[in-house]
Amino acid sequence: xxxxxxxxxxxxxxxxxxxxxxxxxxxxxxxxxxxxxxxxxxxxxxxxxxxxxxxxxxxxxxxxxxxxxxxxxxxxxxxxxxxxxxxxxxxxxxxxxxxxxxxxxxxxxxxxxxxxxxxxxxxxxxxxxxxxxxxxxxxxxxxxxxxxxxxxxxxxxxxxxxxxxxxxxxxxxxxxxxxxxxxxxxxx
Length: 188
Ligand SMILES: Cc1cc2nc3c(=O)[nH]c(=O)nc-3n(C[C@H](O)[C@H](O)[C@H](O)COP(=O)(O)O)c2cc1C
Fold this sequence. Notes:
Bound molecules: flavin mononucleotide
Structural class: alpha/beta
């Protein structure tokens, strides 16, 4: 059993990554393998509406997406994590959502029945919209999305500041525990 946490920040070792690692640690404690995937530095372009994935499970855009799509298909649980950029998920994560969402949706609904959910970090505002934006992706693709003890949001601006948001960390931790619980229930 495996959980993959995809970090949509272009900044390595930032708040989103710290929060995602925290959730993955909670999951790993329950005997599930985990992997963190950083989008920072990768070339992930937006969907160009060519519709090639209507006919086959491939994408003609030659960039870094497909190995990540393969990891997502192999995972039992997927976490999408984003900082808020101008009230929204980052364009990097959005590009991944468009392309992997189209590939999965049009090819035997590849993500159907997986477990997953969002994590969102911001300095001050835009968490709610971004959380909803990510949840839209999970819902249409047929994921089971467990909750936590609060909505999956945390506060922080400069690298590491999220460590000061005790409630945000606890929420991310409990979210990980609920993901692990559900994965273990579904697989046994
Ligand atoms: C281009 C840009 C846009 C941002 N927009 C927002 C915003 O709309 N609301 C907010 O509260 N913080 C905003 N921030 C702050 C980030 O969400 C915050 O610094 C976050 O912790 C970054 O996560 P990271 O360390 O994982 O990159 C923005 C930061 C950048 C660089």
